[in-house]
Amino acid sequence: MAGIAAAFLCGFVFAVGLVTAGMTQPSKVVGFLDFTGAWDPSLALVMGGALAAHALLRRFVVRRPRPLLAAQFYLPTRTDIDGRLIAGAAIFGVGWGLGGFCPGPALVALGGAMHAAAVVVPAMLAGMLLHDRWFAASPKVAAPVFPCAGEVGRDG
């Protein structure tokens, strides 16, 4: 129960931060990607702040023997850049540019009944299902491994 409450609280704080920073407005993303017109650097400032906070706090968190609400840490072990990573980043970038949403802000916007998110979120879910079916049908490429629902983080 504590894990669910913590996840809800973290999600709520994240959503409030996204709304406060204006990241649920597709015009912010489009403005950030418009280098030749009315460029809006606010998204870069939000991302920079998030990266700085992560870089600072990660050093302290991973020194703990285990997370507060999980049996162990699930940290990425791969550091290589392969075709799957490049293709996934390209597809994500195209979707981000066309829809004006990252996944988190899209879900927050959908919760706020924004019409654009009602198109983007189903398209995002369809892409996730397509990904899962693609890797389930391809025996030579293993799908990413995620921990069970009660655990936090990503394995692998």
Any chance you could write out the topology, listing elements then pairs?
Elements: H1 2-21, H2 26-33, H3 42-61, H4 83-99, H5 103-111, H6 115-137
Helix pairs in contact: 2-4, 5-6
Report on the structure:
Helix 5 crosses helix 6. By secondary structure, the chain is mostly helical. 62% of the residues lie in helices and 0% in strands. The chain is globular and about 50 Å long. The chain is built from six helices and no strands. The relative contact order is 0.12. The chain has helices spanning 2-21, 26-33, 42-61, 83-99, 103-111, 115-137. The chain has one domain (2-137).
Give helix and strand order, one letter per element, not per position. HHHHHH
Give unreliable regions as ranges: 148-156
Total number of strands: 0
Q: Determine the strand fraction and express it as a percent band.
A: under 5%
Number of helices: 6
What's the number of structural domains? 1
Proportion in helices? 55-70%
Mean pLDDT: 84
Rg from Cα: 18 Å
Short key terms for the protein model shown above:
156 residues, mainly alpha, 6 helices, disordered C terminus
